[in-house]
């Protein structure tokens, strides 16, 4: 594998059966409120909150749902919370027919990390976290390969030329 | 449906320049056609891959996706993508720009 890598693309997880929400520019308190309210209203068993950057959070719920139900839940939160960014994200997910959340770092934003857990974590959350681990492993391997490649390039530059 | 790995962002790729030409049809109407020239130009665009399949294939496909830029929205099995990456993408490189998930 002697290809050139740059990690400027973003890696994420897409699926239709897990209810996910992306709250940008929202306080943790508000995110927790909406996650709890949504979980209770739709009986979603449990949720996790991931912090993606400053005042940006992702929510993943535990119960497996159909795409129809997923859209229903996301639309309900958008309508009641009147959150512009969340509504924009929701429309984008409807166009793609699958909801995506970022796993890798993006520009100066770090990888999202878990900051809060509530209720059951055994169904969709466990599956999401397993897949997240897989993506993280891929990113780590890519980074190792990239650093090795850089090292080789530096070695080539440093090697003195003996041609007379 | 299983979970998919999404690889997305903005990229720069070289595409063949298309040239238009007209040809007179039998019924007398001038029809416009496009032909692909050998000339290439650099274009900035955004695209997205959605890979599904086994772990090893997913890893290999993600590595390959760093050289072949997606032609729009591509949802493909990692195994199929590895067999023929040129079918799904153009050679280019990813650039850092703000993208929506």
Walkthrough of the structure:
The complex is a heterodimer of chains A (164) and B (101). Chain A has 164 residues and is of the alpha+beta class. Chain A has four helices and six strands; from the N terminus they run E-E-H-E-E-H-H-E-E-H. In chain A, strands 2-4-3-6 form a four-stranded antiparallel beta sheet, sandwiched between helices. Chain A is elongated and about 65 Å long. Chain A has helices at residues 28-42, 67-81, 84-96, 124-158, and strands spanning 10-15, 18-23, 46-53, 56-64, 99-102, 113-119. Chain B is α+β, with helices and mostly antiparallel strands and 101 residues long. Chain B has a domain at 3-13 and 44-100. Chain B contains three helices and five strands. Chain B has a five-stranded mixed beta sheet. In chain B, strand 1 (4-24) and strand 2 form a beta hairpin. Chain B is elongated, with a radius of gyration of 18 Å. The A-B interface holds A 1, 3-17, 22, 88-89, 92, 96, 98, 100-102, 106-107, 127-128, 131, 134-135, 137-138, 141-142, 145 and B 1-9, 11, 50, 55, 58-59, 62-67, 73, 93-96, 98-101. Strand 1 of chain A pairs antiparallel with strand 1 (4-24) of chain B, so a sheet runs across the interface.
